[in-house]
Amino acid sequence: MKWLCVVCVLLVAGCGRSEPAAVAPDHAGHQTAQPVVGDNAFNPTDLAWLQLMIPMDEQLLRVLDLAARHTVDPELRRLAAGTANDRRAELARLKALRAKAKAPTANQHAGHDMPGMMTEPEVVALSNTRGAAFDRLFAKNLREHAELSIVVAKSVATAGKHPEVKSLAASIVETRTAQLTLLPPK
To answer: Who contacts 173 (Cβ-Cβ below 8 Å, separation ≥6)?
Structure first.
């Protein structure tokens, strides 16, 4: 159900608008997408996706860094190291696109409990876990991150507008799909 909510937010952000979007504060001071004019401008789906993927990747990097010290499985350790390198490069691209869109840098998803983005208590619990128990939790969380990333990246393919955002989303679908084949079975 949580996945459906995330996808709905991204799709609704892009539905019913053909004009580009920028970001402006709403009546409560939160940043929301607002129309602007310009070539290759970002639409609300592009902005929502960038603002979701950045904290997802930032949180995942914390978890990936734990694997070097906590896992007993050498394959998971190698997967975590390679994935961390990939996510750091991806995160740089996401942040560059967010800056290009002039979107707010505040994490609008802080405290949200959804698959693919671990909560702070879950990260702390994982950091206190070692060995085979860590490996199971780590693989579960890496799988959830990959699966949610694929779902929301696919929404950008249909509802997004900015060519660089759509290209990065397509790349994420490919890399996450490949990553799922490297994880231990559920």
So the answer is: 149, 150, 153, 154, 157
In this structure, CATH architecture of domain 2-182: Up-down Bundle (1.20)
Record the tokens describing residue 134, joined without a space. 């860590």
CB 37 within 8 Å of CB 20? yes
Q: Is the pLDDT of residue 30 over 60?
A: no
Place of tokens 């975590």: 80
As a whole number of Å, the end-to-end CA separation of the chain is: 19
pTM comes to: 0.77
H/E/C letters for each residue in 101-120? CCCCCCCCCCCCCECCECCH
pLDDT 10s digits, 63-89: 999 998 999 999 999 999 999 999 999
Cα→Cα distances 164→30, 100, 114, Å: 26, 11, 26
